[in-house]
Automatic annotation (TrEMBL):
Signal peptide feature range: 1-30
Keywords, in A-Z order: Signal
Signal among keywords: yes
Protein name: Spore-associated protein A
Top-rank taxon: Bacteria
Amino acid sequence: MRIIRSVLTLVMALVAFGGITAVSALPAQASTAAISCSGSVTDRFAHPSGLGELVIYYNSTNGGTNSACFYHRGAAAGVAAPTYVIIHRCAETSGEGGPCTIRATGGPDSGNFSSYAGPVGVTGTANYCVAAYGHIDWRGTRYALNSGRQGCPN
């Protein structure tokens, strides 16, 4: 017990006096404070099954912020099911619909949701394309939507 207490005291002292610096190796992400499933809808993709819809939003804060949500629709609306959404800022500035070379990621948000997954978001998108992906697992089948590059400035 004394050893644990001594180690904890040492760690707390190092943190208090700046002897330890936390470093994150995660990809660049947007601040969650600015991310919501609102703003200008730039793209929406409905799954042919009618069970889900992937929506991409944009606002001009933080050098351009795009967010995405994957909504339950049709028979899945209001029913808990595994749902997932992620958004990326691409390296590309043109070529809507094409594949995305990922430069930053927002999300994912994943869980057993009854309405939607998200919001997830990424900043610094004013001069770049974005791409989003979402899915719902419904009665043993995955219904997925991939936007490809969208919102490209050129």
